[in-house]
Amino acid sequence: MSTKQDTVDFICEQSGLPGRISARRMFGEFALYVDGKVIGLVCDDTLYIKPTEPGRAILGSTVDRPPYPGARPHFCIGAEIEDGELMRRLFLATAETLPAPKPKAQKRPARAKQTR
Fold first, then answer.
1. How far apart are CA 89 and CA 107, in angstroms?
2. What's the structural domain count of the chain?
3. Could you give the CA distance from residue 74 to residue 29 in angstroms, rounded to a whole number?
């Protein structure tokens, strides 16, 4: 089952971070970014946030569950999603804790074919 765009739009609006939050479709689901850092995933219309100590402190008790089979457990966000201020604090704390994304490798020019 794939995530609906409406769900992702709601999550982004709840964050109160216009211009800093974005989502990118990946394999029918979505990756959620703050300031260019992947902070979580939206899979099957459920929000999963990368686990961090500051995030755990903000949420208190957490339900940790993998967003898809074979993935590491993430914070599974339930009713907390309705609290926009909590989501904003969680998203910012998570983004601040995670390392900056690695720069993309530059493409090398294609080699010319050699003739014998």
1. 37
2. 1
3. 15
Identify which of 40, 73, 72 has the alpha carbon closest to the alpha carbon of residue 62: 73
CA distance 8 to 5: 5
Q: Which tokens go with 40?
A: 């979580």
Q: Which two tokens stand for residue 89?
A: 């604090």
Condensed to tens digits (0 to 9), the pLDDT of residues 5-62 reads: 999 999 999 899 999 999 999 888 999 999 999 999 999 999 999 999 999 999 998 8
What is the CATH number for 64?
Answer: 3.30.1460.30
Residue 12 lies in a domain: yes
Q: Where are the alpha helices (DSSP H) in the chain?
A: 5-15, 53-59, 84-97
108 assigned to some structural domain: no
Residue range 67-112, pLDDT digits in tens? 999 999 999 999 899 999 999 999 999 999 998 877 777 777 777 6
